[in-house]
């Protein structure tokens, strides 16, 4: 028990040190404020409460988040009077509590947050900018409540990002898709960092003035939203808010929809913040770009999604995000107007980027993944066993794996989409089963099955040697690999002795003859010999430009299919 208590105290002190390093502004003559948050009558600390300290005139001095143990530590800039208030998601907030910092000793504040469910407050979504969009009279109270809860989580996320309260393993991707949304290429990256911002974005005032889509030196730039933007005054002044109707897929969520005010014609975003009806916790943001002049064939739904998650230490992070935008090219019409070539924009495809953030450290626990998965089994019916060490690759990406000893494989990818899965193994290649990739559609939270099976011999033979009559069980096929990269024009010959018996009057004439067949060797050393008798010994001979080499003696007596792995000048077994 003592060791556990010591460990927890050490964790609490580590949090305190990190907070001091983050918010200290005058470390030599500053007052330490220690805030503990609990429910009334309970010794248990409340994590995740958003705390704000205000100075004279209501000026915000600092914001923070109560840690896993319900503590928050702050170094005040000077002695004096302050006010502290807390915001607990899904619960009624508390009035500001006055604090007098009169000595250089640590000042303790016990903030009690009642476990009272939220009632509809008499609030509105307001902005210091002139109001340009009034709330719906019937839904105003609900809209204000939803905004209040979403804003708490967004502010907590922004505090975590600014103060680097959580270290995450960041897995990002950037990929190109064709006009049918199939993946053409993909780049991925893994790094460890502080809480990331999901998108490359601009200052809220700049986005309000110039819009969310602009032409840059490298082409068109699309700016996605982050928490800092969504809680800013300019954003609430530029947008109307309303309650979003839900359907069967979102029955547990309440939606707060936003759209640009009617007077805005700049490229903008519209979307919905989705909030859990029971806990009041922000779950996700869906958004799309609007007010864009795009080719007619461009899908209307261009934008992205942001998923939010609160960690056990109280910090809010963006756990997953994605954004899809169009790739356009201007096709010249061959004529000039005012000295400039006239053209039209054509859709070439889409660019998509996104990522996942997995928290790192003792105070966090990894989330249950809902990443799309591709899995399956590779089985060889000709040998009656699974195929191990098969390479499975999603074409155009870095996602790849190999089958285990049971022939099983699984690949996790960061985002849904259509991919071409390639299965590569020498045994499969000799049977001609990897000539083309398989198109698979991967969906979040779902495991897509893609099984590859080498068919039984009676089904495989017509694929390998269509000229063999289906019912002729006396003939078979030999497939193999010379290994390495053979010289051009190398051939493989199968030679065997055939006995013919022919009656002549009262006698039988027995005649032995030598029979052979040849096949070319491809650039990978593979060959295929069709129409081979099943009950004779065969000499396999490698034939080059100047020499012939006996490679081995084999037989199809055990069946109609024989797979050999030859090495030049050596017997195969």
Descriptive overview:
The protein is mainly beta and 573 residues long. It has four domains: 111 residues, Sandwich (Immunoglobulin-like), CATH 2.60.40; 210 residues, no CATH class; 82 residues, Carboxypeptidase-like, regulatory domain (Immunoglobulin-like), CATH 2.60.40; 104 residues, Sandwich (Immunoglobulin-like). Helices cover 13% and strands 46% of the residues. It has seven helices and 34 strands. The protein has a nine-stranded antiparallel sheet with strand order 9-8-18-17-16-15-14-13-12. The relative contact order is 0.08. The N terminus and C terminus are likely disordered.
Helix fraction, binned, reads 10-25%
Strand content: over 45%
**Mean pLDDT over the full residue set:** 77
Number of helices, counting only DSSP H or I runs of 4 residues or more: 7
Rg, alpha carbons: 35 Å
The biggest sheet amounts to:
9 strands, antiparallel
Distance from first to last alpha carbon: 66 Å
Number of strands: 34
* Count of discrete domains: 4
List unreliable stretches of 5+ residues: 1-30, 119-132, 134-140, 362-368, 569-573
Which secondary-structure class do the elements indicate?
mainly beta
Q: What is the topology, as strand order, of the major beta sheet?
A: 9-8-18-17-16-15-14-13-12
List the topology elements.
Elements: H1 2-23, E1 31-38, E2 50-54, E3 60-65, E4 71-76, E5 80-87, E6 97-101, E7 107-112, H2 140-163, E8 167-177, E9 183-194, H3 204-210, E10 213-216, E11 219-222, H4 227-230, H5 233-238, E12 239-244, E13 253-260, E14 268-276, E15 282-290, E16 303-310, E17 316-337, E18 340-360, E19 373-380, E20 385-386, E21 391-394, E22 400-402, E23 408-412, E24 417-424, H6 426-430, E25 438-442, E26 447-449, E27 452-454, H7 457-464, E28 475-481, E29 491-504, E30 507-520, E31 526-533, E32 537-543, E33 548-555, E34 561-565
Parallel strand pairs: 1-7, 19-26, 19-27, 28-34
Antiparallel strand pairs: 1-4, 2-3, 2-5, 5-6, 8-9, 8-18, 10-11, 12-13, 13-14, 14-15, 15-16, 16-17, 17-18, 19-20, 19-23, 21-22, 21-24, 24-25, 28-31, 29-30, 29-32, 32-33
């Amino acid at each position: 028990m003592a060791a556990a208590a010591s460990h927890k105290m050490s964790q609490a002190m580590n949090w305190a040190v990190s907070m001091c390093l983050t918010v200290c502004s005058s470390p030599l003559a500053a007052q330490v404020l220690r805030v503990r948050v609990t429910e009334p009558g309970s010794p248990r600390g409340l994590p995740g409460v958003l705390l704000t300290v205000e100075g004279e005139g209501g000026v915000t001095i600092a914001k923070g988040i109560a840690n896993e143990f319900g503590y928050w530590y702050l170094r005040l800039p000077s002695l004096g009077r302050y006010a502290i208030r807390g915001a607990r998601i899904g619960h009624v907030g508390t009035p500001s509590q006055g604090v007098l910092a009169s000595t250089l000793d640590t000042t303790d504040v016990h903030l009690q947050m009642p476990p009272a469910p939220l009632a509809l407050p008499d609030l509105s979504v307001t902005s210091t900018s002139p109001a340009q969009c009034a709330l719906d009279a019937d839904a105003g109270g609900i809209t204000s409540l939803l905004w209040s809860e979403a804003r708490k989580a967004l502010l907590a996320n922004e505090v975590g990002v600014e103060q680097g309260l959580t270290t995450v393993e960041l897995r990002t991707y950037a990929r190109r898709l064709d006009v049918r949304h199939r993946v053409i290429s993909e780049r991925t990256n893994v790094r460890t960092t502080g809480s990331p911002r999901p998108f490359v974005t601009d200052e809220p005032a700049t986005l309000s003035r110039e819009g969310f889509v602009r032409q840059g030196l490298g082409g068109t730039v699309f700016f996605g939203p982050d928490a800092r933007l969504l809680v800013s005054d300019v954003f609430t002044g530029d947008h109307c808010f309303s309650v979003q109707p839900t359907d069967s897929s979102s029955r547990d969520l309440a939606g707060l929809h936003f759209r640009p005010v009617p007077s805005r014609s700049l490229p903008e975003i519209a979307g919905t913040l989705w909030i859990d009806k029971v806990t009041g916790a922000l779950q996700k943001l869906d958004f799309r770009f609007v007010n864009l002049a795009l080719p007619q064939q461009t899908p209307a739904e261009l934008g992205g999604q942001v998923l939010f998650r609160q960690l056990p230490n109280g910090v809010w992070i963006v756990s997953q995000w994605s954004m899809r935008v169009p790739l356009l090219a201007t096709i010249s019409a061959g004529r000039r107007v005012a000295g400039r070539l006239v053209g039209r924009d054509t859709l070439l495809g889409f660019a998509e980027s996104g990522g996942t953030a997995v928290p790192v450290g003792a105070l966090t626990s990894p989330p249950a993944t809902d990443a799309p998965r591709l899995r399956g089994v590779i089985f060889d019916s000709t040998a009656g066993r699974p195929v191990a060490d098969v390479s499975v690759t999603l074409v155009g990406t870095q996602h790849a794996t190999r089958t285990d000893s049971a022939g099983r494989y699984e690949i996790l990818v960061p985002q849904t989409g259509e991919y071409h899965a390639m299965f590569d193994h020498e045994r499969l290649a000799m049977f001609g089963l990897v000539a083309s990739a398989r198109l698979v559609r991967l969906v979040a939270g779902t495991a897509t099955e893609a099984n590859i099976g080498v068919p039984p011999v009676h089904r495989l033979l017509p694929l390998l040697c269509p000229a063999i009559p289906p019912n002729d069980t006396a003939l078979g096929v030999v497939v193999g690999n010379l290994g390495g990269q053979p010289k051009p024009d190398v051939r493989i010959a199968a030679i065997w002795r055939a006995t013919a018996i022919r009656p002549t009057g009262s006698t039988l004439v027995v005649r032995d003859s030598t029979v052979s067949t040849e096949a070319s060797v491809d650039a990978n050393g593979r060959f295929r010999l069709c129409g081979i008798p099943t009950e004779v010994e065969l000499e396999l001979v490698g034939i080059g430009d100047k020499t012939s080499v006996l490679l081995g003696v084999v037989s199809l007596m055990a069946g109609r299919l024989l797979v050999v792995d030859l090495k030049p000048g050596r017997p195969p077994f």
